[in-house]
Amino acid sequence: MTPTLTISRLTKRFQSVEALKQVSLALQPGKRAALLGHNGAGKSTMMKIILGLIPFDSGEVQVCGQVPGSEAARMQVAYLPENVAFHPALTGEEQIRHYLSLRGDDPRIAPELLARVGLGHAARRRIGTYSKGMRQRVGLAQTLIGRPRLMVLDEPTSGLDPVSRRDFYDLLDGLSADGTTILLSSHALTEVEARTDSILILSGGQLVAEGSLADIRAQAVLPITLLVRPVEGHAASLAAALPEASLGIDGVLRITCAQTEKLPLLARITSRSAEVADLDVNPPSLEDIYSHFSRRDGQ
Fold first, then answer.
1. Mean pLDDT along residues 72-96
2. With contact defined as beta carbons under 8 Å apart, do 127 and 91 qualify?
């Protein structure tokens, strides 16, 4: 299968600052990738290069098999910035009809696109009366024009309430199922943890981690936390049997261990099942992993 986006040994400098250093990655059709990184890590620079807005110094970039910024590439790419801007005097429907006309598509499908992003009820209201979240949804409707093969989204849930965020990711799920590749930059780590196929972590212009959440957990080699709730009256005996555990004021025993120690430790705990009321195994979260790679590189 031919990748929708291919980046090979990409380097970009701004005078003495090397914004991107030998970055390589490939995104397959229908995959959702989260691009993470601290401010100044190179995320915006990478997205601008993919969109053909700025040149790069060395390496190779192919967007849907085309040169970034070429007419053939632009026809297959959609972009949503963090802060969208539309004419406040136009209605949502008028704005989307305008973009459809520019694209050469049928303006009559504007209500359908707005309905897909939850704005059907406000399609004929002026954008000047919209909240920030509603304006963001107009931007989402715009990205749907032309059935793009690649969507580049920069903090797309900014300004959306929790229900709208859920609906937004449901929309992305449907698009990816239809073969659209999605590259999403976000600081909302708890959101992307469950709703993306792969994680890309940039730090200091370098791609320091790449893969599924399970893959980068393995790369980070961070400890696992086990929470053991004793049966009433058995806290002392269970704590004595698990000397590596610390007993919290909530009565829960907390044990931190390496991944390789997890199964032997679970066996020890379950062997005393009569004293255990409940057990939780908490692997490192995406926030833990992101912090690990950022701190490792001095951020």
1. 94
2. yes
247, 236 Cβ separation under 8 angstroms: no
The model's pLDDT over 44-53, given as tens digits with 9 standing for 90+, comes to 999 999 999 9
Rounded to whole angstroms, how far apart are CA atoms 48 and 50? 5
Task: Dump pLDDT digits (tens) for 227-275.
Answer: 999 999 898 899 999 999 998 888 899 999 998 899 999 999 999 999 9
What is the pTM (predicted TM-score) of this model? 0.85
Of 32, 35, 47, 64, give the one whose Cα is nearest residue 178. Answer: 32
Contact 144, 71 (CB under 8 A): no
Helix (H, G, I), strand (E, B), or coil: what is residue 233? Answer: coil
Locate all alpha helices (DSSP H) within the chain, ordered by sequence.
Answer: 43-50, 71-74, 92-103, 110-116, 132-143, 162-177, 189-195, 213-220, 235-241, 262-270, 286-296
Determine contact, residues 159/190, Cβ cutoff 8 Å: no
User: Which of these, 297, 299, 296, 293, lies nearest to 209 by C-alpha position?
Assistant: 293
